[in-house]
TrEMBL record:
The protein, known as: Chorismate mutase
Enzyme kind, highest EC tier: isomerase
Pfam families on file: CM_2 (PF01817)
GO biological process assignments: chorismate metabolic process; salicylic acid biosynthetic process
EC number(s) reported in the record: 5.4.99.5
Keywords: Isomerase
Length: 98
């Protein structure tokens, strides 16, 4: 005989997983848009003989991202995410500037 509590738990877990899948899809779409803009930034920097590394800009991006955060308990994770995104963007820019 099936345990109704187990079915409820699995159903809830499936719903949470579906929610995460939708969010992941949005994140990937936004990530792709961000990379496309990073390519444009690379082209601009190349044309204007600018360095890829813009330390002040990176600080501004992190500060702005943290200001948008609703739950500050996640601030270290958000900072880590933004650093990762910026590192990826710098790699993309380096590849495009070569």
């Amino acid at each position: 005989m099936c345990n109704p509590n187990k079915i409820n738990i699995e159903t809830s877990l499936d719903k949470y997983r579906e929610e995460i899948d939708l969010i992941d899809s949005q994140i990937i779409n936004l990530f792709e848009q961000r990379i496309e803009v990073a390519v444009k930034v690379a082209e601009y920097k190349k044309e204007n003989k600018m360095n890829i590394l813009q330390g002040k800009r990176e600080e501004e991006v992190i500060k702005k991202a943290l200001s948008e955060l609703k739950n500050m308990e996640y601030s270290e994770y958000a900072k880590e995410l933004m650093n990762l995104l910026m590192n990826i963007s710098k790699e993309v820019q380096k590849d495009k500037i070569k």
